[in-house]
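Dear colleagues,

As part of the handover before I leave the project, I'm documenting each prediction I ran so the next person doesn't have to rerun anything. This entry is a single chain, and its sequence is reproduced below.
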Amino acid sequence: SMRRLAAVGGVMALAACAEAFQTLPMGTARVAVGTLGSSRRHATWTAKSSLSPLSRVPALLRPAAGKAGDVALASSSAAAEGDKEEPKTNLVLLGVYFFAWYALNVGYNITNKQVLNVFPLYATAASAQLLVAWVWLVPQWLAGIRPKPSPSKANLEALKKVSLLHGLGHLVTVMSMGLGAVSFVHVVKAAEPVFAAILSAIFAGSVMAAPVYASLLPVCAGVAIASAGELSFTWGCFSAAMMSNLLFASRAVFSKIAMSGDDQGENMDAANTFAVVTMLATVVCVPLALILEGPKILPAWAAATAAKGMTAQKLSTTLFLSGLYLYTYNEFAFKVLGLVSPVAQAVGNTVKRVVILVATSIAFATPMTPIGITGSTIAMAGVLVYSLVQQAYAKK
């Protein structure tokens, strides 16, 4: 199974290098957990229902004014691109992007859990995954495959704040996946829009219509029901997943408050902005991992490689692949969500969560009770309804 995952990862990564790192034809990019996007004046990072990422940094459709979770990340190229006529969507290419986005996302969740099962140092694993972005990006910048980013001083200061929340959000997300079932974590993380809505109202003064808030109730109910029916439920897993929601929602809300300038620097399109945020997040996570787990790394690595069926090469490869999948699935999310409508975005994000939930449940033979299935279904459907209602009122 590892060879198959590696083969799929290699193909998808090469495709990402060839296609996903190019400037989006619409000058936009959106990511499900922390979404990067461009408008005529700036790119935005929109907090949606997931992550990660990038989610949460995580973490691609034109934002509506006053929409909860929209965060300004300006793009130096967006102004010129904003006046161009949008090209027709290539449905075949879009299908390939959707498949790559989902496949790489599933690949990340599986390889990440495989690493954590034998190497339960969560901060170290999270930092190593972020470090893969350096290995992936720096050679491309040096070779001229993608333009080198050069953020302005003001933009860099704003990105530092975003990267702090992005890095910590990724760390606690990895922790939650290590402490419990991956499928359950994704059900809990479906509640991220609840945090974004509350924080936006408190700190950004962005108050939505009552029906939008009411549409969040099924999400809360679904998560509560799923938690009650989760056989492997632990407060550690639940708390870490909830903390991830809080951090990624905070990342979106406080970025919007902090970032408003027009001078964003050179080559700071959505993809490069996400790249800079990911690399700055590494600067946050690596020292933290060394402080928290430094003395434990070598003994834990030795114990992991001594486990039955595990070798140093296999563990290293799996850890590297998890980081590669993490970054490239976000890049494909830019491409996918930059080509679809807001409704298609909402459906795509919801389907992605269902795909991950089902795939990881099968991969790790995670049993789900009827109560757990019911709660998961309500939560996922609630996220879709919330997204659609939110968009409907944003147009008014």
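The two ends are 50 Å apart (CA to CA). The chain has 15 helices and five strands.

All the best with the project,
I.
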